[in-house]
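Please, is this right?
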Amino acid sequence: MVTAVANQRPGLFAGVIGQVPVTDMLRYQHFTGGHMWTDEYGSSDEEGAKYLLEYSPYHTVKKSKYPAMLIMSADHDDRVVPLHTYKYVAELQYKSSQAQNTNPILMRIEKDGGHSGGAGIESHISEEADVYAFMAKVAGI
């Protein structure tokens, strides 16, 4: 949701933190457990493709100035595969650089982590420290 809203109205935000986002709404159901979400999101294999394409974060990135963004995932996430984060951040960095964006577009991938953590207390503390440091920087603290 956060990444979709940031694409639609980037000027509303100084910073955005997307945690394990589903960003490719046309292909999500083809990876790991994504097929279980078609009741919620709809399927791009059916008539839902037109609707999904209207807000799919990966597909709606424009050549624009975006807020500072920290998009997070884990390399062993078996629910929301990290390819969503990889693709989305790459597209953001490419299109925002064309628009001479001065805000950082960052990706944080937890090594040996899964969905909702699973990598231990030290990893959780490190992740939270990165989130707070990002927020402080964006807020000018």
About this structure: The chain has a mean pLDDT of 88. The chain has one domain: 2-139.
